[in-house]
Amino acid sequence: MKKISYIMCALLLFTSVGIFSSCGDNTDFWGVHQLTDEEIAEMERQQRIQDSLRTVINANLILTYDMDIICSANSYDGGELRIDLDAIANEFGITLDQLKRGIVNMRPENLKSGVFSGGADIMGFCILGSTHADEMTAYNTNACWGHWWDENGDVTAWGDNARVYAEWVGADEVDDQSVLLDDPYFIVGQMPGMMVPGQTYTFMEGLKYQDIRVVVLVNVHATERGEVKAEVVKTNKLELTTEQDNNYTAVPVPGFDAAAALSALGVGSWDEVVWVAVNADGSYAQEYSADAPGFWYDKLGFAGSWGDDASVYTHFDAETQTIGVGQMPNQMEAGSTVTISFGALANNKIVMNEITVSITAKSDVGGEVVATNALTLNTTPNNDYVAVPVPGFDAAATLSLLGASDWSEVKWTGLNADGSYAQDYTADAPGFWYDKEGFVGNWGESASVWANFNGAEIIVGQMPDQMPAGSTVTVHFGAVANGKIVMFDITVNTTAYEDPETAPAGAPESIEKEITLSKVYDADWGATENFDVKEDLRQAFKMTTYQIYSAIKSGDLKMWIDEVGSPADEAGNPAYTGEAPGYWLSMEGKAAAWGSGSENVYVFLGCSETELYFYAANHPDETLFPSTGGTMKVKYIIECNGVTATYNITFNVTAAAARKR
Q1: Going by DSSP bridges, is the β-strand pair 61-70/212-223 parallel, antiparallel, or unpaired?
Q2: DSSP string, 589-604
Q3: Model's pTM, two decimal places?
Q4: Residues ≥6 apart with Cβ < 8 Å to 17
Q5: CA gap 532, 530 in Å, rounded
Q6: Distance from CA of residue 220 to its chain's centroid?
Q7: β-strands 388-389, 458-462: how paired?
Q8: d(CA 240, CA 443)
Q9: What number of helices (H) and strands (E) belong to the chain?
């Protein structure tokens, strides 16, 4: 008789045969128990029942669909899946319109808005693939119905465990009006780089109405792109000679005839064309690795990826009908040459463009300095990268001296420590960071200021904490065109702020105020009209506006929430959850962390050297703040100069303005 040894006597309860087993009167309780064939058979039967339950789908109606998705390393692409809504509506015993509205209203903000009223009270859910247990959520994507799924068909979050996703598209914005789609659908897509060709990913999205359950079972078959075996009907041998560049600048390739390419392909529009590159094994790369449609190439000219092994990239601009080529910074030295292949594919035909890219040394920025302008900028220290226009710059006169008709013909340069002219921008283009000696440098603690031309003015900003009051630096920023340079020697002086105000007389005194902030619901982070508290705070703290502003910036002024249990209720040690001093708040008026799901509104104390004000806004995501509006109350206590200013704030958000057709 077959025996199995267990190291501990266990009580085994078999519901069907009623076996109750012990170790026997004369057997050590901790001894070995030998299971009988009958006991083994019962255990195996119970396991089969459990395994069977894992394959049962608890639903009145199951709709099964199969779809292929091509694996992608870079995109979330997939396809559209239309399901049998008529069958679901019939199963529920409701109209198709009630079903479509009910699905859309599973997202709370849609239901609250009333735009899709008249829908049935439908609940979304899903079934986990590994256990077939219910997961009672309608979505964890951006849709009203749909989830991210892992390789086992279990719900997961976006990230490395995710393989595929489903998002229901049931409505759209037309002329700024939300409208129900006549033909709604699922978008089923992938987590880039996570699907494995040849594998099938199965997931189950569900809908429940009253006691009736419907499940949509989707089998996603991960496939590889089919090999391109199209005929090359035309080969264009093109050449591009361009200067070494470290700014990803795309340069048009001369000689490309867009009309002739379309004619050779037998199509009338670039919408019908896809682009390919050539892999090292001679096959065609189809998945874009640069701005679509485009590819990165390795140093041998084969399709590759961004990085240290890259040489150049291509991109086709359908609007201008040009092929552009740009360089990987610091990878293409003067004298480098690489030949790349960039092909247009349509109708099983390819027009191949073999582009030989030759890199030359940067042309000497030098030329005749036709004018040197000495400019002076006196400004106060700034730690916020704020750009200040340099007075005295004459744009029209500069263009005239350069013989240029507009700024598109002009480049900008700075002066290096060795006296040469800088060509690679080190700040926002066109612009440079400068070191403390006034020569071109890079962002960091050795930097002093940066200069930039914004299309109309020369502007200068400071490196935070590196230009205290009393600092001076002279930088050289030049406009270049037609072999001419107009140089601007800009002396930047930081001076102590001259306070235009006098602090109110008397001793500081605590105050308490009631204020109301109001705004219309806004989906674009729009803040309310500022509520001016400048005079309140000046009188309470007996300080000038600039002194209060300085106290805010230094952290000497503190603001907290007088609410027991709030994460920001500790006097003298506020834990700001937004821009200091200020908080994201729940509708109960408690501090809420960004990303916590309870950050419904924000109320901040805004400031400048001359202004002090409260401003507030609703969260623009309707899942966190409904467009129908709401009211939040909070008590802010501001402490400075030994006293407090208390504000009992009521923040009213009114319903979004009616949309116009």
Answers
A1: parallel
A2: S-B--TTSS---EEEE
A3: 0.49
A4: 38, 42
A5: 6
A6: 27
A7: antiparallel
A8: 33
A9: 8, 38
